[in-house]
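Task card 7
Instruction: Convert sequence to structure tokens.
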Amino acid sequence: MKKSEIKELVKSAIEGIKLINAYFRFDANYYNLIPLNSNDKLFLAIKEYDFIFDGYSVFRYKDLKKVKIKNDLCDKILQEEGLTPNIVIPNIDISSWKSVFESLRNFNRNIIVEKRAIDDKDWEFVIGRIDKTYKNFAYLWHFDANGAWEGSPLKVPFSEVTNVTFGSRYVDIFSKYINDPPMSK
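Output:
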């Protein structure tokens, strides 16, 4: 599918608040998303799974290989259950990865940053809080599976980021049971 076709379908889904199947180059399965905002390089979407919204993600267009607007019973159910009419669009500047990270830093919440790849050995996942942002990278305080914060922030180059997730059930519930990070002054 051509990038121009993908972008037009995403734009149409934004205007109509429609669910899409998004096929990414880094995953054999598709994602159910409702796109909320976009520009030429990035788009913001809410994730849907079994009639439940599970957080927001910012994705790169260059990772999309195919998009299909669902236009089926699922859309009707989301509407009738009051989900799509009550979507809250977060105030995230998606002009660039730098602006995304700066916007999310202002929320002072934990996020997930991923470098997705088909091959698991190339896949990277970081969960934590943004410490500082620069032109081409950010530093994140990150914690492990036991909720222990690492000793120093991790440098995350924007060129390697495929998507950023926030407000998801996983990150929000996990965050309730850990201490705040030892943020830099």
